[in-house]
Amino acid sequence: MMQCIFLLSDSGEVMLEKQLTGHRVDRSICAWFWEQSIAQGDSFKFLCRVADVLSDYLGGLNEDLIKDNFVIVYELLDEMIDNGFPLTTEPNILREMIAPPNIVSKMLSVVTGTSSNVSNTLPVATASCVPWRKMDPKNTSNEVYVDLVEEMDAIISRDGTLVKCEIYGEVQVNSHLSGLPDLTLSFANASILNDVRFHPCVRLRPWESQQILSFVPPDGQFKLMSYRVKKLKNIPIYVKPQLSSDSGMCRISVLVGIKNDPRKPIDSITVEFQLPPCVLSANLTPNHGTVNILASKVLMFFDHTCSWSIGRLPKDKAPSLSGTLVLAAGLERLPVFPTFQVGFRVMGIALSGLQMDKLDFKNLPSRPYKGFRGLTRAGEYQVRS
Amino acid sequence: MFTQFGATAESLSKASTMVFRIGTDAHLYDDPDDVNIAPLLDSKFDSEKCEALKRLLALIAQGFDVSNFFPQVVKNVASQSIEVKKLVYLYLLHYAEKRPNEALLSINYFQKDLGDTNPLVRAWALRTMAGIRLHVIAPLVLVAVSKCARDPSVYVRKCAANALPKVHDLRLEENTAAIEELVGFLLNDNSPGVIGAAAAAFASVCPTNLSLIGRNYRRLCETLPDVEEWGQIVLIGILLRYAIARHGLVKESIMLSSRDLENIASENGASDTYQKGNEDSNAYFGLKESNADLTNGVCKSEVVDIVSRSYLEGPDKYLSKHRCADVLSSELEGLHFTSAKDNEDIKILLLCTSPLLWSHNSAVVLAAAGVHWIMAPKEDIQKIVKPLLFLMRSSNSSKYVVLCNIQVFSKAVPSLFAPHFEDFFMSPSDSYQVKALKLEILSTIATESSISSIFQEFQDYVKDPDRKFAADTVAAIGLCAQQFPKVANTCLEGLLALASHESTYGDNAATDGEAIVLLQAIYSIKAIIGKDPSSNEKVIVHLIRSLESIRVPAARGMIIWMVGEYSDIGNVIPKVLPVVLKYLARCFTVEEVETKLQILNACGKVLLHSKEEELWAYRKVLSYMLDLARCDLNYDIRDRARFIKELLSCYIGSSDTEEGKAQQESRDVSRVLAGRIFGGQIKAPSSEQFSARFYLPGSLSHVVLHAAPGYEPLPRPCSLNFEDPSINSNIVEGAKRPGDGATQSESYTDDPDSVSGSLNEESTSDYSYADSIGGSDGTGGSNVSSSLSEVDVHKEPLIHLSEVGYPNANPDGGSHVDNQYSGSNNLGELISTRSLESWLDENPNSGHNLSEPSSIRKSSARISIGHIHGRVEPKICALLDPANGNGLSVDYAFSSELSSLSPLLVCLQVSFKNCSTEPMMNLQLVEDNKRQDSSDHASAMTESSSHGDVPSLVPMEEIANLGPSETINIMLQVRFRHHLLPLKLVLWCNGKTYPVKLRPDIGYFVRPLPMDIGVFSAKEAQLPGMFEYTRRCIFTDHIGELKKGDKPGTNDQFLVICECLAVKVLSNANFFLVSVDMPVSANLDDASGLRLRFSGELLSNSVPCLVTLVLEGTCFEPLNILVKVNCEETVFGLNLLNRIVNLLAEPARG
């Protein structure tokens, strides 16, 4: 149970306050939290959801957007929470109750001066057993897209061995189907899935018995399922950092190359690492791509992040980054070693090897267009030096 | 090139953002008060109202107090536009508590909206009405909730369930039963959405009333997967509590596994000395325990035992008990167990919660995992592991929460998470807290097979830029090394390398971070050596060698401690000792305090353990150091030096001088003492092994490690006994007539002496209106039945209250008591129940109240108070202070006289007094021409517009001349347009004007309506439910009065109290005193049950208005008074109720 919600701006000012129960909370409490910068608790998951819904509505979540739409924010908060307990959190229903801002309504309000974003009627879906779906939506297009979006988490230790490699994936569905369709999705190799979590629309019994996903989809884009595949052996690219210190200087060289070719182009390759605080200056030059050193302030500490963006791997050479770091006075050697974060993207393939078998429809007048896609990104792909 | 354009580039970009943000509400947020909001609120156009309300909302959002717009906002509640309504509701909810009186104005509109055909309007009205949180309207809200609980719309029913905690929050105990009944009714709903909300209501209203769950347990379990996620979390918790309270713990579960391992547990009693704090020098992590694991493959019985007891009793209670006495033989023995295999209820709970482990909501997964953790058989518990681990892949904060829970699970059953150790490897995005938790879990779940990979990881972590984390890693390495002796050697090597590596940075670069790591490294080495000192002699020597380079005082101190402690171990150490001691003596003066202390201690120990041949050399070193220490700046060191000198005097002092026998004896004593103090075996200081507290998995308390508000441990197993027929019958009855609870609770306060229907002749008094009623009897047919009970009633001892007085004239004529006892009956309640139910469209349940047991009937005596009219003195208020009016003082008091012109006019006695020395001319009060519009619109709500032609002030004749210190009284007739808002007038005097304000008193918006008790009860019965408003207050005036009247021959205490009350009410409101009843059975001191009734009718529309005061408490204490108002006009009734409560509660004047 929550007592109040405050929305704070980037500088820690209270932008919006909503008291939920009779026990009023003074807004000065925010200052304390801002200093402590902690956010933990039971209600946390709900706050995440609020933030999700808000950014969904406003197309992002920042100070200006909240200012632009503070009335909608208030109305939404009021609909979502009642007396500190969540009331309606299903985005589809909320969307019908309180219209999200869009160009049309903005123009309308400019021209006529009158526009209401509050619906006059209660969405029918509040009473339905599939609250996530609007009642009887009409779509001109009759199509459904299923994407496997995977993130690869890997740890490569100092000596170059693969400590851990696993994939966190999501089955994202974008459905534009009319009526109340019933879909069944099955996998060719469901046994490789380690852990799974489902959207509430998935019926759990068929999964328990046959590992089949049977569901009535919400309209539009949604996350049908997330899964994890553990203990993978192959990583697509390698990064070899080398650091050697000598009398107050540290020579650094980083090599990047393909390890196990996924037979699809790898792009958006980046390598990032934080320069330790004891580094005074850095002089780094790549033979391919660009290097940026960014300073960011995270909780009183200045972080200097060095990011090397490579893009696609060139055919003729192996990209490398080399240079020197100047250490703080009195330091002979680098006492700590940064961890290198690697980013990449492989289109058209799910590296976990998960394969969709078939997608069946029931309760649909005509056969829709089906589309399948795979995509793998680097998640927490880290190489220690 | 185009400079004229270039100049505008900036303004262009500004303009483009303006264009982009056009049509949004940003301008409202940025300058909310750039236009006058008040006229917009009164606009006819919804769009303008909307804009005004949005501006107000923006002001609220920015933290400004805009409650002064309340009256204008409230009237917009009548708007037909949904958006205006919504915005008004948002405003109302924010300020209603601050402006209760004005908020009441909206109640009528809510009630109208509750009957709307649009479910959204109904739901909003209910939500707002309940959210206003005013005590006065609690009964109304309750009735509205019980109506909405039967609404055809799921959404409205859900809102009804959500409204229950709000009503409960007001803490009106007379409503509790009704609220719980409604919770039970809503739990019975067939829509999962409603059940979720009802579960939340249950959890906050009556979490212990588990019998409500019992009715629906199976059905609730089965609908669990369909309930929305937030409801699931709450419902899971409730079902778990019910299952435990009903059936007890499961005997195959982890919670009770310590039973099987009882003997093992007692065998290695104190082996679990794992402590987070590092002060425990001998922390060693259950070696034998791991053997138990190997043989049994399950769990740390001791931890499990503590965990399960903490769950059941709450850790604070458990820990305090644990400190007082050893509770190893626990009362758990006495509890009942059940088996998951053959108990259907528990089977179904586990079955229905297991798919929830796949939920995409982390909190649901955690709650479901908690159920399995506590209830599932040991062999099935494995299934919670993967879902829990998967949760860690969500946000950083939920990662922390999940890890907190895993930490406890893994402590109790390390084998559960042991195969998944890789999941706890750090990722660079982890926060420090998360990393620390992961380290702790890793060191808990490490096994022989996984320890090498874990060490590989640890070695990488030591080089992490976060030095605090690196230090924690070093500590974890130490722990693991103690746990697995096989790896201890590699650990030591690594740690030594680390220590020497760290120490090479020297003084200049040794930042705080490095110091922590170094200290922790030495500490871990010390702990590992402590397990087996003799085989680690080389390590000690190595450390001693590095004393030269290690500069951190605490680390030096620790090494020196080891020198003293292990001075007699092995071959090498005794050899190097003299050199070391000399080194220490040399650098003694430049050491830090803590190091100095350690040096002194170490020397003392060395001396104690030394053999004869070295004794002399050591003695010399020590006395040198003691001399240095005696002159130290720090008094701790001087003290220590003196202490050691005294203690070791037998070793230090020369032994060749002759000494007496007594001295010899004291030497022996100090020898023993010194041996004990320096040479004794150090025991682990932890007799209490777990300072850690365990709270239920998934609870907030578990994360913050103290009981958060609202935390409840699990109920006592099997505390819910269903074989008790009374519970069952209650349930059945309750289920049959839902909604009945609401009505009962509203009226049961009357029970002690409910409406007396006896034939009773009201004695006439000099009270000015009483003469009209004579001796009419308003007896209903109910009297016939009540007379039956009179026989035994008469056996009650009579309390003769007073002599027969002369009610007509005598000012102090005492009171007249009709000693007519009457068994009252419950007609009033009966009718009210029925009519309420018909209002609710329920089938009237005719019979059940007739069978009320006769014990409720109580006899009462009727007192009539004759002489109080003389004591009634209306309250005088100041209209104009002489300081502001050039010496003119104007006071007014409301008069009980009635206007002859119009029923809407209220009479006021206004007295003009000239306090100055000059005469005053031409005094007159006239209407303020520019009247406040707020009173204008408010009038629309309170009075019908047909009376619009009545002026606000009947023109008063001018006072031509008012001499010095002369007083003139004038009767003024005024029409207030609103119960609460003041009327603005202008006072003319000597050609000057003074603005004045007449404050209305709602007590004078009525005129006395003479009636007798029969008519009163009949009318009361016609105004039940929605038209009945009750509130409690404390009355203290009588205490002073009773003390005053302590002289002999005074009246009865009851009379004094009644008079006080009656005078107070009649001095402030224009009512007719109908009757004063008192219970006959009462004790002499107990005023409970005294009941005063007043009646009146509204001036404007002659609607009757009844007031009843019921007293509770003893005579000489503050009395608790229940004030009840029955009136058809909701707003008026509630305002009147507030007024009466306020006037009773405020202390007497003078």
From TrEMBL, chain A:
- Cell compartments where the protein resides: Endomembrane system
Q: What is its main location?
A: membrane
Q: Which residue intervals define the domain MHD in the entry?
A: 141-384
Instruction: Give one Pfam hit by family name.
Output: Adap_comp_sub
What keywords are annotated for this sequence in UniProt? Membrane, Protein transport, Transport
Family, according to the entry, reads as follows: Belongs to the adaptor complexes medium subunit family.
Protein name (Swiss-Prot/TrEMBL): AP-3 complex subunit mu isoform X3
Where does this protein come from, organism-wise?
Coffea arabica (Arabian coffee)
Gene this protein is translated from:
LOC113727826
UniProtKB/TrEMBL annotation, chain B:
Any idea where the AP-3 complex subunit beta C-terminal domain is?
A: 832-981
Q: Where is the composition biased (Polar residues)?
A: 755-767, 817-826
Broad class of where this protein is predominantly found:
membrane
Subcellular localization: Endomembrane system
Which keywords does this Swiss-Prot/TrEMBL entry list?
Answer: Membrane, Protein transport, Transport
UniProt KW GTP-binding keyword: no
**Entries under Gene3D superfamilies matching the protein:** Leucine-rich Repeat Variant
Q: Which InterPro entries match?
A: AP3_beta (IPR026740), AP3B_C (IPR029390), AP_beta (IPR026739), ARM-like (IPR011989), ARM-type_fold (IPR016024), Clathrin/coatomer_adapt-like_N (IPR002553)
Region listing for Disordered, in residue ranges: 729-790, 803-826, 929-951
Protein name from the UniProt record: AP-3 complex subunit beta
Record organism = Coffea arabica
Protein's gene:
LOC140034966
